[in-house]
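Researcher: Please predict.
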Amino acid sequence: MAEGPGIMVNRRTIHHFGPDPEYVGGMGSVIRVFTEHQMGGGSVRSHPTWRPVAWLGSIPLALRAARHVLVARRHDVIHVHLAEDGSFVREGAIVLLARLLGHATVATIHGANFLEFTERHARLAGFVLRRADVITCLDPQVCSLVKALAPGVQVELLANPVLMDMDSPSAEETEEVVLFAGEVGFRKGADILCQAWNLVAAARPDARCIIVGPDGDFDVPQLDRLERLPATDTAGMRTLMRAARVVVLPSRAEGMPMVLTEAMGAGRPFVSTPVGGIPDLAREGGVLVAAGDAAGLARALTDFLAVPGLAGAVGERARRFCQETRSIDVIDERLGVLYQAAIGSS
């Protein structure tokens, strides 16, 4: 008797390849949501190819990950998470191996500098991407580029899933807390935030700023009412997010930062910059200032701190937007359709 599509969905395994999901932030956080919520149908597993804090130790991880491709079953799906530079070479090899073995292969493009990477390595990027059955992107500009690099491959705009926090209180009810979460470096504008904070602190005597995340290439100076915290886990981030009035990310380059969609899912407005896919989010839940504009950043943060009702209204609009467009249920349904498309074309 032939097996129906429902039976095949239940029996298939979705294999995710990318950074270790135990590390909070970026691609790892996305993969963790996919696996913890078993998104896309069937059984969902992750196979880390690298760890952010242990590059040499990542070599055995990548080899073990490749072995999972070798032993995957015919109706399984290989879902590879790609960024620029070393990630593209390492995870790109997984794409090529999956294609060689005839597996349905989905590639998701992450990375703040992917556009610049493809300008330097267009032939390599096209060679790898054309081996995928389906490619998903986080912002329209990357989608347009990928369609040109991989004609004939199904390319779709697909948001990262957001773990909604419907129990988070309104931003209107919080104290005057500004939260920065991410790698503390120049790319994410930690230096600009510190410049802006001097202005905010002078204008708002009760305001506090919390910077949380792994060390990058910027050392946070000691400033009045600014606290530097190390990277934390999912529960710790939820606690910090609930305590914040506004989230800030003055990046110079981004893809589609998870911290902003997580802020929106918790009913928090944000102040950020018009880079990557951030402008699409800002229309529903944030304010944009030019990258490098410390004075403009300070003014935008002060507006939310000084007017709790404004923070609450923008935050709740952001939460509704995320619930309707990128909640677990919404993205789970879209993923299931894309996985079926990949299986059909492999």
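Model: The CA atoms of residues 84 and 113 lie 6 Å apart.
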